[in-house]
Design a protein that fits this description.
By secondary structure, the protein is mainly alpha-helical. It is built from two helices and no strands. The protein has a domain of 54 residues. It is elongated and about 85 Å long. The protein starts with 27 loop residues before the first helix and ends in a 6-residue tail after the last helix. Keywords: Membrane, Transmembrane, Transmembrane helix. This is DUF3311 domain-containing protein.
């Protein structure tokens, strides 16, 4: 008879699955900069910068605000 090796214990990895509808908001800062109609002209200029450049800064602020909002709305409340 051949000795059989014992099977290692199966461990189930617990992954946090958050199916919150708030997560859909994270697509906003991804999709909005992909719309060329928003920045395909030179005017208006703010402090001498054409629309394309100051809209890039606005997209960064949009991304930060959206990410912060989604984080705060989906964060688990511990102990309360």
């Amino acid at each position: 008879m051949a000795a059989t090796e014992p099977e290692p214990p199966t461990t189930t990895r617990s992954r946090a699955k958050d199916h919150s509808p708030w997560n859909w908001l994270l697509f906003v800062p991804i999709v909005v900069p992909l719309i060329p109609a928003l920045y395909n002209s030179d005017a208006p200029r703010i402090l001498g910068f054409p629309r394309f450049y100051w809209l890039q800064l606005a997209y960064i602020l949009l991304g930060v605000a959206t990410t912060t909002l989604v984080y705060r709305m989906t964060k688990k409340r511990g102990g309360r």
